[in-house]
Amino acid sequence: MAAKLASQASEALNKTDYSTAISLYTQALAILPTAVDYYIKRSTAYQRSAKYQEALNDAEIAVVLAHQRGKRELIGQAQLRRGISSYLLEQYGDAAFCFSLGKKFLDPKEKSVDMWISKVDLVLKDKEKVPEDDFRREVTIKEIPDVSIPTAAPTTTPQVVVQEKKQEEKQEDIKPATPVLPPQAVVTPRDKIRHEWYQTNTHVVFTLYVKGVPKESVSIEIEDQAISISFPLPNSSDFQYNLDPLFAPIDPTTSTSTILGTKIELKLTKKISGEKWKALEGVPPTPLDKGKARELTSASTPDVSTAPDVHTHPLSNTGPAYPTSSRTGPKNWDKVADELAKPDGVAGEGVDQDEEGDPVNFFFKKLYKDADPDTKRAMMKSYIESNGTALSTNWAEVGKGTVETSPPEGLVAKKWNE
């Protein structure tokens, strides 16, 4: 019975009828749950249906069963399917590891594994797409995965055999058995879970990098000024990530969340389009701030007599924060200039300032004078195109396009004739 179902499933797979192939292989596995080839073929059908996590689940079961049987060719095929599924889930380090294992067990005449090795090598060489510190580069799996093997279904369960269509007979209705899938679980250690964010004029995109979180176990709450993500970990504890308050209000009704095999992504809609967030998290309101409505217009002048806005960091004697492309955040160039202008690190004595007595001008002249050609080009281009509101030394970034004008907070950029 299982062999006949598998034969019909193979025909459906060859005809690109992937849903039928998955259904038939599932029925065959309900009868014979230790058939390595059935898992490999169903993994292929899942992968070609863009169900990559399910494809990975089947491939990992196939690896375990193939090792139990000691069949080198089956081990190689299972590791190859495991690597392809990991690659499509953007788990590039894991994929490269699986492909190397597959190559070790497969026949040298099998060229498909070499093609996949080349593909993943190209991705890993692209430092812009996958930076050196990107979590996707890490190998987080073992050669033989820790997965449970499904057992056979009860003998009383009726099995449905698909009959071929006949010209003068109606095809019988098929009720496919429920797929037997291994349970998903978080595979990223707690200390390896990380997050990042970026913004556009209309949205803030928050990404939590964690592998294998079951969709049904994730709790995501998006409120006007807060977000919360929680899910269970394998050690029976819970992982929780809370941000309250956010830097600025969002619209929960149009914000969305997506749970993928390698990450959880929130796309938060800004309530005030065009507002620039200086950070992801805001400052909790003080008692004086409670009950006050937040008023913000692009051309208004802030009233310094009122309490600080709840979404900005408290003011301090640190000087203005100029626009910057540095990963470490904005620098206080006034302070840096003062330090560089002091001879031998002695404060307040014998300051060698610019001809006009301005330490800032002295600093930037010194920076430009000692810079390499690319740095000089970046400084000139960014300063001129931004109308003096930005200064960058990174030609790789500045050379990509026009540097936009970025006036300080509270000011509005206008053309000369406006």
Mean pLDDT, rounded to whole units?
77
Strand order of the largest sheet: 1-2-7-6
Structural class: alpha+beta
Global morphology: elongated
Structure notes:
It contains 11 helices and 7 strands. With 418 residues, the chain is of the alpha+beta class. A hairpin with a 5-residue loop joins strand 4 (227-232) and strand 5. Helix 3 (36-48) runs antiparallel to helix 4, helix 3 (36-48) runs parallel beside helix 5 and helix 8 (333-341) packs across helix 9. The chain is elongated.
Nutshell version of this structure?
This protein is of the alpha+beta class and 418 residues long. The protein is 33% helix and 11% strand. It is elongated, with a radius of gyration of 30 Å.
Q: Could you name the key traits of this structure?
A:
alpha+beta, three-stranded antiparallel beta sheet
Write the layout of secondary structure elements.
Layout: H1 2-14, H2 18-31, H3 36-48, H4 52-69, H5 72-88, H6 92-105, H7 112-125, E1 194-199, E2 203-209, E3 219-222, E4 227-232, E5 238-243, E6 250-259, E7 263-270, H8 333-341, H9 359-369, H10 373-385, H11 395-398
Antiparallel strand pairs: 1-2, 2-7, 3-4, 4-5, 6-7
Helix pairs in contact: 1-2, 2-3, 3-4, 3-5, 4-5, 5-6, 6-7, 8-9
